[in-house]
Write a structure and sequence with these properties.
It is a single chain. α4 (48-61) packs across α7 (107-121) and α7 (107-121) packs across α8. The protein has one domain: EF-hand (Recoverin, domain 1, Orthogonal Bundle), CATH 1.10.238. 64% of the residues lie in helices and 5% in strands. Strands 1-2 form a two-stranded antiparallel ribbon. Strands 3-4 form a two-stranded antiparallel ribbon. The protein is globular and about 50 Å long. The longest helix is centred in the middle third of the chain and has 15 residues, at 107-121. With 187 residues, it is mainly alpha-helical.
Length: 187
């Protein structure tokens, strides 16, 4: 784990100061745009699916929906990814998948987000279709082809393998490592 462990401070003032100076160095305006977010993570030039995923992550971090991630939103995101309780993370994942924001995830939404994640992470043990079908098979209790937040959280929390799979597939700590250690390559 390494870098992620060094992130697990106690939310102290020096730690906040460390993030603030890093954030301001990478983003002097104090407002991180989607373009700067991609640049910071070295994720320009992705295919459309990958781009879509990064935009979804950005939009969820952009709590007030003003098109920018400011320092407080940045810290909230870091806290969630590093210190968040499992159900908070699952709520966040649910929000990520629920592309149209209607409070349910359908197969198409899950398939498109998983395809996008594969485009970024590269390696995977199963196809996006297999992954999507498996999730629905396991946790769509009433077989209506949609997952509510409750079905999603209960389903994932009661299945150790699924929990591990979801956590591994959507692990954002590599995103945070880049932020923690500065850009991978100076521009």
């Amino acid at each position: 784990m390494g870098a992620a462990e060094s992130l697990q401070g106690d939310g102290s003032i020096p730690e906040m100061h460390h993030y603030y100076s890093k954030f301001m160095r990478e983003c002097p305006s104090g407002q991180l745009s989607l373009h700067e977010f991609k640049k910071l993570l070295g994720l320009q030039g992705l295919d459309p699916q990958g781009d879509l995923y990064i935009k979804r992550v950005f939009d969820i971090f952009d709590l007030n929906q003003d098109g920018f991630i400011d320092f407080l939103e940045f810290i909230a995101a870091i806290n969630l990814v590093i210190r968040g309780k499992i159900d908070q993370k699952l709520k966040w994942y649910f929000k990520l998948y629920d592309a149209d924001g209607n409070g349910c995830i359908d197969k198409k939404e899950l398939l498109s987000i998983f395809t996008a994640i594969q485009a970024i992470n590269g390696h995977t043990d199963m196809s996006a279709e297999e992954f999507t079908n498996m999730i629905f098979q396991k946790i769509d209790v009433n077989n209506d082809g949609e997952l509510t937040l409750e079905e999603f959280i209960n389903g994932v929390e009661s299945d150790k393998d699924l929990m591990e799979l979801i956590t591994k597939s959507f692990d954002l700590s590599n995103v945070l490592k880049v932020i923690q250690n500065g850009r991978r390559h100076s521009i």
